[in-house]
Amino acid sequence: MSTQELYFQPNSSLTALGFSQHQPSEQLKPWVQQYWTIQVPEQADTTQPYPQYPDGGSNLTFEFLPNQLPSAYIHYSQQLNQSSFLPGQHLLSVRFLATGTFQLLGISPAELTKAALDIRLCNLVGLDWLLDQLTNSPTLPARLTAIECWLLHLAEQRVSNTTLVQKSLTLLKQPATDLQHLYSQLPKSRRQFERLFKLETGLSPAQLQLLFKVKLARFLISNNPIIELVSVAQQAGFYDQAHMHQHFVRITGQTPGQYKKRKMSQLSNSA
Fold first, then answer.
1. Which parts of 54-204 fold into alpha helices (H)?
2. Could you list the residue ranges that cross the membrane (predicted)?
3. By three-state DSSP, how is residue 98 classified?
4. Alpha carbon 234 to its chain's center
């Protein structure tokens, strides 16, 4: 399992809804975490909600409807959300990393005040071509290829080099990173950097670092449900177990113990 899989955690219920995940090309990995798709059978039970855990990223989601161009929306939220799906619904989504929306689409997460933004209003280069390709491509591989071609074209147009914010993400994902040390190494003032960071990610460095720590804690528990929570807190970079408990509850809506118990139950049921 990769920590990149922890936005949606695959299980038998999601699989029954036609859920699948796909990795981006190497060229797009600095900005794209993954692609995921859902194609819900008409007779499927869609009463169960599915948690979407915040991790600093955003989704560009295409919804396919019969005999018309797909709709396309950017979703950005750093709160725990519960997603539900409808019988017959068909979605294909690009899951961006923290800077992806800004660097590839030119859209600042800090400006996304609505739950969903219709990107057809953003005058993105090549979007009309992409929507036509998605409409006329009946297979998932063909649609993924079209999306990749479009994103690669945007990358060539928009991204000239790796930004200071993007470089800092690598450090923020390391549990032992001290923010004060990071600030002292910057070629900009702390205020300038934080303003730029907020523009590209929609969050402060401290906020995103906490999301990364909770995400790592969830990965450690999911990967080894019998692990001691004290060890999880230490490995994920929290001061202590109480510090982890506080932020885990705030971000996931459950305690680390409850999350661990659920993962142990899933492990037992799959045995």
1. 100-105, 127-136, 140-158, 164-172, 179-184, 190-201
2. none
3. coil
4. 24
Which numeric CATH code is attached to 164-270? 1.10.10.60
197-240 pLDDT tens trace = 999 999 999 999 999 999 999 999 999 999 999 999 999 999 99
Residue 90's nearest CA partner among 109, 63, 127 is 63
Q: What are phi and psi of 227, to 5 degrees?
A: -65, 145
Structure tokens at 38: 């859902």
Q: Residue 166 carries which side chain, given as an amino acid letter?
A: Q
Q: Where are the domains of the chain?
A: 3-158, 164-270
For residue 219, how far is the Cα from the chain centroid? Answer: 14
**Hunting for tokens 């509850």 — which residue is that?**
249
Rounded Cα distance, 70 and 126, in Å: 15
pTM: 0.86
Alpha helices in the chain (DSSP H): 12-16, 100-105, 127-136, 140-158, 164-172, 179-184, 190-201, 205-223, 229-235, 241-252, 256-270
Of residues 98, 120, 118, the one with CA closest to residue 109: 98
Pairing of strands 71-75, 20-22: unpaired
Sign of the torsion formed by the C-alpha atoms of 77, 80, 86 and 90: positive
